[in-house]
Amino acid sequence: MDTTDAPQVIEHITKSVNYTPYDARWIPCSARFVSMGIHPRATGAINVFALQQGELKVVHELEKQHGVKCGTFGASSLDARHLAVGDYAGIMSIYDFEKPEIPVYSAQAHKSIINCIDGCGGLNIGYGAPELATGGRDGNSFNDDERCLAAGYDNGDVKLFDLRTNTMRWETNVQNGVVGVQFDRKDIEMNKLLVTTLESKFRMYDMRTFHPAKGYAFMSEKAHKSTVWQGRFLPQNRDLFMTGGGNGGFNLYK
Predict the structure, then answer these.
(1) Which SUPFAM superfamilies match (predicted)?
(2) pLDDT for 62-93, tens place per residue?
(3) Which domain holds residue 218?
């Protein structure tokens, strides 16, 4: 197959680190991002990098007591830009990068590892009070307009919770363990929900087409020939999203 005319994804910068990175987030309104992970000695890593003349410069390099699994700026204002992280000990902490040595807030959210964290009400997106949600051994994401939370479980269940009424609105099973879920945008009504799973599969749900018996309409695809560990929408265009697989590959879809 001739791929010379196909769209190309070009690598911009490569940076080697001395820890296993689990999550990375752009710091809002800046040319910096934060990388989070775990050192071989099981301590946590939170590193801030800045883009400078085509290279990555380390701005902050922090080592924490426990490995860091996930992080989000979703519940922080644009002025504060506080990072909320979840670690291997089940502790949720919020850091201010003006004084990053000690968290400004910390709480024991789970008894063991926090696999995912998300926030809403911050970054001038949507409305309502800032809120954080953490998931232990499941996936979750927020839609800020309706205050719905989607959670995925290792038995293949996907559940949609209404935080206003504290009820479950919908549930289904995708037949494989769920490793990630994400709404396409937080500042609109529910539109698309991406669910990535084990065994090289992912599903895209149309959250505006609901059947009383069959649930939400969806399409299923196979990718990477391995677990689809990540699925992320492009913020500037919600019709574009990328998946990351266990084979080290990235696929861009429209």
Answers:
(1) WD40 repeat-like (SSF50978)
(2) 999 999 999 999 888 888 899 999 999 999 99
(3) 153-253
